[in-house]
Amino acid sequence: MEALQWILSAGTNFFEGIQLSNDLVRLQATLPKARMLICRSEWGMFKDKQLAKLLSHLKDTTYDAEDLLRQLDDQVLRQRIEDADRSRAGQLLSSSLNLAKTYIRGSKARIKETQEKLDKVVAEIEGMLNLMGLMSVEPSQIMPETSSVISAPEVVGRDGERNALIEMLGVMIGREAQRDQVIKLLGVPLTRGRRSAGSNGKRTTAGSGVASTSRAKQPKGNNGRAGHAEINCKSNVSVIPIVGIGGVGKTTLAQYIYNDPRVKNHFGVMIWVCVSDFFDKKRITKEIIESIPGEEFNPSCSLNALQIELMERLKMCPKFLLVLDDVWPNANADWEAFYAPLRRGPEGSMILVTTRCPVVATRVTTSNCEPFHLEGLPTDVFWDFFKKCAFGRNDPESYPHLQDIGRSISTRLCGSPLAAKTLGRLLSMRLTEQHWRTIQKSELWELRHEENEILPALQLSYLYLPEEVKTCFMFCSMFPKDYSFERDKIVDIWVAEGFVAPEGSMRSEDVGICYLDEMRNRFLFQADPKFPNKARYVMHDLIHDMAVSFSMDECFVMQDLSNRMHSTVRHMSIEVDGESLTRMGDIQHFNKLHSLRFIIGFDVEITWFNQLSNILYLSLKGCKLVKLPESICELNSLRYLDISHSSVQELPEKLWCLYSLQVLDASRSSLKTIHQDVTKLINLRQLALPVGASQALSKVSGLGNLSCLRDLSEFRVAKENGRGIGELKFMNHLNGTLAIRSLIHVGSVQEAAEARLIDKQYLKELVLQWRQKSIFTLVNSDNEVLEHLRPHSRIECLKILGFAGDTLPSWFKPEDLPTLRSLELSYCGCFQSLSIPCLADRTQAGLAGGDGTQHASSSGSHNNGIAPFAFTCLTALRVYRCIGLTNLEQFLIPETLPSIKSIVLERCSHLKSIPVHRFAEFVCLQDLKICRCRRLECPREMVLPTSLRRLCIVACNYELERSFPACLENLASLTLLQLVYCDSVKCIPLNSIASNMLKCLVIRLCLELSSIGGLQGLASIQHIQLSDCPKLTEVQLPFEKKELRTKEGKELLKFLH
Questions:
Q1: What is the pLDDT of residue 789?
Q2: Is the pTM of this model over 0.90?
Q3: For residues 72 and 24, is the Cβ–Cβ distance under 8 A?
């Protein structure tokens, strides 16, 4: 309807407008069928070259149609934004209206032409798919059917020769250790001995037979994605999965184990079932029954009857080994129902499952087992195997020049036996340098499909992906091999490209993360080892080759000038330098590109950016440019612009007319400021800026227009129009950290409530700052404003800074902040004690102890040992420069903070009362820092928990210092000890401290300290600073030792005051 209104508003004749709108609706309606045909055609594209050619044409035409529709949407958006502040007369004279008229006149013929092309290619490809039988049923790859017989000729009585031949074929090379490990998991002794055949000791004829392995039915999709349910640990039958990427040798290893004499002697019945791509409970159950001796049964009966028959046979069956080969994720939903009759089988029986999907492995594993992850062959073993495949009967030592080439090729294959056989077979055809160099320069996807075994094995993982996930995966082949994908960035790119389909109320980026998880669960992405503990992933080289096999007409990596860009390419990476690109002259078909990225360090001297009329993603990351080309401002379809790590200092004014822009990444650039017109980018989801520009953004008026924005690190409240806290009202997609500063400018509680912080469910950290320093005069309006700044219950970190109220708000209680992990109160000068509503109720309930301290009631106030008023997730507390604070007796106790790990109290000059005698009850406490709290009164000595790792006491008083050295006893985990201005401490016997983990010791300005237990106590400490202790004569002062140079060591030193 909006498009029709726009067409008519551009002055188009009413009937022409209706016709044009109908044509657009028809074109839109054709696209779902076109996409369905694309998915079906991918199943047959490698069997028929004509189908592959038609598929490429269908994709190109479909993308052209999508481009046309997207351009129309962009024009509608442009006119809506530019006309928003214009009068009716101004709208009639606007440039956007004239542009709309021109666009509509040119679109009529384009829509008709695109529709005709699409109809034609849809009809052609539909006819071909019908002929190939891929339209009437769900498409299916011809899945290889497996059996328990090792995939090599059986040689009776010639074990030595048989093993040598098997090694040449790659069945067993390097798998002895893995075989033995799995055999031990099966409970089989590794030494050959007498057969244990189960409860009745009889060996059945089924043991030497192979179960029927009929073809699996056609796939029904991947709907059965049930989560992992714990299998009853009392089950008699354990399940061990072998999980690994396609082609790594899972089936071969299973066959190898199945046929091992030790295994056959251990189990009375051996069963092998090829599950394949459809988990048919009835078929699999029937084949298991057929492998167990018993009377004849009706194979066409119901699942219920089959399972009853199976349970009856298992009562008389010796312990069995069941191999379920090639299980896919659609088994997850039916696994429990299938496994139920097997669960109570003969004790000691085992099920061995092979799968390429970690989610399947997790789902089927019994609680007493772990999945067995099968990696590629070790480098040396793989090289020996690769040589046998490549040189055959010839002596490799006779071809030293070929060995170097062979090693280069083998390193790309990541230990895959199937890949070694594929490439080795091709290399062995001609032992010439020219032939081997040709193979070396080729990619796996360039080989003829009939010569290639590894790609079909890997392609199955792609073909069974959901349609949207396929598109995202294929797109990633536009990046070079070994590219490290940052999770959030690649997901944002997918969203900008329009690949991510909305799912209910989920954010598009959350749906995209689900797509990425789906790929990881199929080994299409793996964690990048170069970035441990970070959400970064890489594609296995073989997986990248497989992706290219599907995307070669759409994705292109220009790595040298000999590679020419195909006319259908939509996504391109330029990995050559700018000078080389200039020598190439004009590059055609730029108008079709959706994505373009340049290599880091590229010297951007390009004038053809305005040709990128359909560009959605443009990456100039790390390029040599200080100013963006003006032509970029003409890219009306642009959704994602990356200028990070560049020297760009300012952005063109017209950039803010790119109304469709969703992501602008200028992180780690030289950008200094941000223009007021940024608020016109109403679709902006991500705005990554360097510190200076981020601070400038916090002062821009009208930020509330950016309701889709996810990241706003700082917002400064001001009195001027468009700077009020109410601008945050509809910014409910904000995540990560939000710091709201200058809250003194919030004029009323109504204004504070307009921020609707309670609706911002994705925020993790909230900083509320009134002033930069403490004031000591009570400001009651601060209390009222804070009361109406209630965050969402999912908040994890809360910081209250420069607050001049004297009470915490009513929402500061565990039931309203159940996930709170960190609390900081800084420059809050008017707090005298932390008065929390739930604690006030507790005091009224008469929970005060006889000594005035607070204790939990002996009954009615605990649930599994945790008080109902406890912040169970709170692990870090920091109180800094709260000058008026005198008492923490009601808050700093184990009942309130049972999980606390870090306590930091600094420069609270009036703080008198903290329950240091109860610190030992903080069983999780690791860090304790008390600095410059000079008025502390400690009637009882401090007692510390054995969990403590870092202790820092600076400039307190005798009341606290008299706890030393007794409080250091039994601190077996202590790694850091700092004492400064502790004038009453006389002795620190390092040699008697229980911890042998002490790495850092800093003692300064302790005037009465006379002993540290001698030099021997310092020998194992890596960082030592001893100075200004006039009575300490055991060591010549100043004494320094600085050997903590590791990353962990530097992190440890940050804790020092």
A1: 97
A2: no
A3: yes
